[in-house]
Batch of 2 targets.
Target 1
Amino acid sequence: MSRIRSARRLASIADSVFGEMTRLARLHNAVNLSQGFPDFEAPQAVKDAACAAIQAEQNQYAPPSGTKAFRDAIAADYSRRYGVRLVADEQVTVCCGSTEAMLASIMSCIDPGDEVIIFEPFYENYGPDAMLAGGEPKYVRMHAPDWHFDEAELRRAFTNRTRAIVINSPNNPTGKVFSRDELQVIAELCQQWDVLAISDEIYERIVYDGHAHVPVASLPGMADRTITTGGLSKTFSVTGWRIGWAISPPALTGGIRKLHDFITVAAPTPFHDAGVAALSLPDTYYSGMRADYQRKRDLMMDILGRHGFTAYRPGGAYYVIADVSRFGFDSDFDFARYLVRDVGVATVPGSSFYAGPASAPKTIRFCFSKRDDTLHEADRRLVNFTKARGTDTA
Ligand code: GLN
């Protein structure tokens, strides 16, 4: 075999589905409820700060770990809200999106042969990140309708080879907000087995129905064994800026920064200033955003209910998983393809959030971080689905 080929370790890694669904949405002129990005405006003050930074010649490399002002703002905001003390210089690294923060965290902490526990369904990057590091993902299922996990199964997943567990709360794709009790179980297991928690908290500000986000690092005994990733993308509707961060115990920060420096050098400079502006928005920004999203969540649930989907109400993030097993399609991919092509609504097939798609429940994910108009248009298009189904099943 020629040596001019992709590395073998990529063979077991599937292509990302999100970008592909957005491509299909464009191709079929469909309402795009697939990839998780808002189709509404980012806050004006945040955009103004980015433009001002460009005009003020903030256009060369930023310090690799992030500008001091931005790192300080991230640390101050996190400490204020969660009561976790942070030293920005030693613990905060600004990355190109929390996706890079996650990769740098996993790559810098996982050795070949280490096991990494991942809750399933999961955001698609964690498994590939672990495999790129030479680690072995080990999956623990969460079950609808409330996406609980079986504590005994989780206990069994921990072994002498376990190096880390990835937690994502509020969760993509399920919208589950892990309770303090659930996190406490995880925290005790981490301490018992001397395991690192890597906590993706990108949706930390998007919670509904009085749910509270509990950062893993705030639990007793966890600050020194938790890396938290977060970012501007979801909270401030700037997914294209690629600004995220890792908050790490000082002992792990050097490794993360080393990798980050080699992967991307630094995150785009003008957005560090914009990040400072974002994190100084008043609390009313966040309460307004939460109220808007909760209303959109309710609208999405209403739409799905009226069109015959069994949908699981999310407590946070901006996605809804809906069961599609009874619609007679061979797979969720077939169903998602039908929906984007024939009905004009793009979604993400649920099995792409599972390691073994064959054993995944047949579901699709709807993203509702969209203008009300967009959601109403999806509603109108789904009427065709309801009609077609009426004929099919008659
Ligand atoms: N986080 C977003 C989602 O889940 C986008 C992911 C991506 O494009 N890789 O849809």
Note: The chain has two domains: 8-42+283-389, 46-278.
Target 2
Amino acid sequence: MQNELAHRLARLRTALGSHQIDAALVGPSADFRYLTGHPASESERLTVLVVPREGECTLLVPELESPKFTDFPFGRLDRWRDGDDPIDLLARRLLDLDARTIGVNDEFRAGFLLPLQERLTGRRFARISPLIQELRIVKSPAELSLLREAIARVDAAWARFCAEGRLVGRTERQVARQLSEFLLEEGLDEVAFCIVASGPNAASPHHEPGDRIIQDGDPVVIDIGGPYQGYYADMTRTPVAGTIRDPDFAVAYEAVLEAQQAAFAAMRPGVPCEEIDRIARDVLATHGLAEAFTHRLGHGLGLSVHEPPYLVRGNRAPLRPGMVVTDEPGVYLAGRWGVRIEDVVVITEEGTERLTRSPHDLLALP
Ligand code: GLY
Ligand code: MN
Ligand code: MN
């Protein structure tokens, strides 16, 4: 791991050099975890990794958080105490480094950035998240094995739910609670999201589970996931509660599955991300359902649940081996129901590998 962290840091420094950025500030975020190997809590107290283009890094942390970081291998661990002015400490460090152009990641809070800018007049500030995202976009073998672990755990939790779970007569919240228990028992670090959207609620792609009692015949969009050692799984299935009653739903389900499979079949290195999105959309158009597909086809997955590459209109970037993306077309009919089927796929030298193993067939659960 230490070698991999050193390699990531070296690549960031090369990127800073080619963009004439003298030092990077990385606040608590997936970027921070990627570069330090540690999660950090986002809070009103300043925690920041300072990466100069050359020379040692500084990890500036609140003293009470510092025991977690004592093994920081790439430079100084500077602690500040409640009552100190951490912005002043950070500004002085940047003055010592003579940083004229300062890169800032997206999660470095405005509440810290604006006072820092006031303190360091005449310096240029630049957004560096795109540079770090470019480092993170292709997964290493070690990252891929953690993603596989996360996804296998979600598959296992879903298999348990299909065997033991009930939908009809239970509230969305009750179902979400049971699924969340299964996800934790299978070993996810936490449940990051657990969408249970029944009947007309399923027409809202990111519905929050509520007190609606699931009725016989309801399609139920279930979108579950969370991290394993920081790396995210994300999967959606749309079973029907009880008996399938609406023939339009069964037709739409098959159309979404066809779109999903067509997108999967088209994924390989070199194909532009937007092309994969278009292929899924074209399949739905042949079924008269294009308007009902209201979001992008997919997103990258890693230390964040949504990260580049995005499979979306306008993204001409080609797929590359080692990228990990979701394939998640959906159809949403307001007032009626919705359907989404979501898998995670890794792009390989030869084409693709589907990491999600849960079956796709339309399922009726009691
Ligand atoms: N669940 C679809 C998206 O957020 O892209
Ligand atoms: Mn999802
Ligand atoms: Mn997703």
Note: The chain has a mean pLDDT of 97.
